[in-house]
């Protein structure tokens, strides 16, 4: 993998991890477009590095919020910080269970399933369209909300379903304040990403033989910097009710992917 491919993949991951257009779906499409050396162990390692970069950018942007979550867990007081920490934990459970018990099934979806990616992008587009039309409120995320949002995140494991789109869209449709919905969405995924990275690193499918440190470093830096920009931008866009533009984008890319899938058969 050369440095140009690494930059392209880093930009795709950095933008699509936070913008509601499905990072997994776009990476699957990128794998088909880019040269065939983005396969096997090199593909897995690059994916791990890119996800670590965007997770780190989330930590940087929301460092104060994350510190409050950690404090809430160890204060042993029933206050706002503790409640928010427990809501984050509750929201993680559905995706964690899916990842543990259905890991092999999930991996089978990430093998050039362009038709699935296209169909799920249409689902993402529909959800964003509905969320954009929802009324603004000032509601906080409740414990019940956190479970429902967590289920949405678990479903978003499918390539083409945007994680941020699913969680933010579901939150807004539940009546949660838009800015609070975006904040909760980005915070709830951080522990899961780091957990998934750790699981991949200890997997027997993972190897460091033939490691291309230069490409990995370039991909990491690109994804991290792009992620910082995209995360901040996304929070601003959600507050301004601009999800409809991403909805239209998902429809266009989804339909294109479906047509592409049929032409390949």
Strand content: under 5%
Largest sheet: none
Look at the helices and sheets and give the structural class.
mainly alpha
Topology as a string of helices (H) and strands (E): HHHHHHHHHHHH
In angstroms, what is the radius of gyration? 18 Å
Q: What general form does the structure show? A: globular
Helix content class: over 70%
* Domain tally: 1
> How many strands?
0
Cα end-to-end separation: 28 Å
Number of helices: 12
**Uncertain stretches of 5 or more adjacent residues:** none
Average residue-wise pLDDT: 81
Give a brief description:
This protein has twelve helices and no strands. It is mainly alpha-helical and 265 residues long.
Describe, in plain words, how this protein is organized in 3D.
By secondary structure, this protein is mainly alpha-helical. The longest helix has 27 residues, at 213-239. The chain has helices at 3-16, 23-33, 40-61, 63-75, 80-101, 103-109, 114-133, 143-155, 163-173, 178-201, 213-239, 243-264. The protein contains 12 helices and no strands. The model has no long low-confidence stretch (mean pLDDT 81). Helix 7 packs antiparallel against helix 12 (243-264).
Task: Reconstruct the topology from this structure.
Blueprint: H1 3-16, H2 23-33, H3 40-61, H4 63-75, H5 80-101, H6 103-109, H7 114-133, H8 143-155, H9 163-173, H10 178-201, H11 213-239, H12 243-264
Notable characteristics:
265 residues; mainly alpha; 12 helices
